[in-house]
Amino acid sequence: MTNNFVFNDSLPVAPLKIAALESCKELAGMVNDHIVRFRRNDMEELMRRKEDLHYRGYDVDSYLLNCRCPRFGTGEAKAVINESVRGTDIYVMVDVMNYSIPYTVSGYTNHMSPDDHFQDLKRIVGACVSTAHRVNVVMPFLYESRQHKRSKRESLDCAMALEELANMGVDNIITFDAHDPRVQNAIPLIGFDNFMPTYQFVKSLFAHDPHIEIDQEHLMIISPDEGAMNRAVYLANNLGVDMGMFYKRRDYSQVIGGRNPIVAHEFLGSSVEGKTVLIIDDMISSGESMLDTAKELK
Fold first, then answer.
1. What does the pLDDT look like over 241-250, one tens digit per residue?
2. Is position 105 within any domain?
């Protein structure tokens, strides 16, 4: 399959560069390999366009930017970019949930938290935004997306983080299955793409267990709380099966571990007897809700 539609209908914004932070190097390598193969798919058309300045740097061996974020002995860090980014279209890739990266502070070993990853992201943006043509951020898990609304006197961290990136000069933010995509209202004048992986999820699920029977007698979609209801409704509608949901009854008279404890999970929906049930949620933190939901269903 040729890439003629790429050449005939659109032009590259600028030469592409992928700035992969340490937390996202493996994914960035896969993206880079895919783009290299894709852009070399139609060599005849590409050779004909070689002299076009719009295609400067279109066909290269690697689009990965030579950059890093070294740390001082105090734990402080800086971003270092070892090649020119003038006039390029930069995609900075970061995984703020990668807890596996250690660093040393005054002889003690720490593991990078989401805050550390976000600071490194800002360092890379700050190092290249002044000369790059455009800076885009690819963040598979949206930083602070759990703190997306204010219900009392508390910080609104996700909105503040997005505004900070917008003020630094970031043009686009790309994420997947944000906890609440309405948080993009904090940055209405820059691009915000929230891709839902529903198809990939269903494809992997049925490939893993091909014996699942998709009909109302054998399958049911369950939402473990109100927050996941939209996802469950969408999936149930597309598969043509019934849906049920739980809602959490909390004790608002006390706070334990920074939140109101859950007293019980109440179920709304038809009988699940003899059915395969699919529990759909957007994320698992402690796993408590998922375990409680599974116990109630059993």
1. 999 888 877 8
2. yes
